[in-house]
Amino acid sequence: MTISEKVAYIQGLFDGMGLDKSDGAEAKVLSEVLDVLKEIGEEIDMLDATLDEHGKEFDGVENALNDLTEGLTELEDEVYGVEDDDDDEEDDDDDDFFEVECPNCGEDLTIDQDVLAAGSIDCPKCGQKFALSFDEDEEDEDD
Fold first, then answer.
1. What range does the domain containing 136 cover?
2. How far apart are alpha carbons 21 and 12 in whole angstroms?
3. Residue 101 backbone zone (phi > 0: left; psi -120 to 50: alpha; other: beta)
4. pLDDT (tens digit, 9 = 90+) per residue, 21-48?
5. Is 14 in the same domain as 60?
6. CA–CA separation, 27 vs 20, rounded Å?
7. Residue 74, domain member (yes or no)
8. Residues 78 and 108 in one domain
9. Which of 35, 58, 83 is the last residue of a domain?
10. Cα 25 from Cα 45, distance rounded (Å)
11. For an engineered disulfide with 7, which of 12, 37, 94, 111 has Cβ 3.0 to 4.6 Å away?
12. Total domain count for the chain?
């Protein structure tokens, strides 16, 4: 039940009781309150109608934005290619990097296979040169 319908129901009760503004102070106050409630109900009904209208407009805009987003995604795929294939190649490249710790300053360094093959590296933090060794025998001796 809308507010306007509820106010109309209360107005019916008021009228059914045989009350009139001229019947006394209480009847006059109740009559004025009912008039204010009618105005409030009418304003709310107008606001609801306006919101419904704008809601429909928003739905149209939202649908248009979704269509544009889909079209842009298709265009990006067409221009730049599908990224799924590139992701697989990047994952393979990540396997070619190793992390080592500088024995002089403790800085964590990420190196590739070329640096590993060279066998030594200059630490970019402390400048000290140290040898790279990944022999499993040395790791077993440290444990």
1. 96-142
2. 15
3. beta
4. 777 888 888 888 999 999 998 898 888 8
5. yes
6. 6
7. yes
8. no
9. 83
10. 30
11. 37
12. 2
Task: Determine how many CB atoms are found less than 10 A away from the CB of residue 66.
Answer: 10
> Is 75 in the same domain as 104?
no
7 and 75 part of one domain: yes
pTM assigned to the model: 0.37
68/7 same-domain check: yes
91 in any annotated domain: no
Confidence of residue 89 (pLDDT cuts 50, 70, 90): low
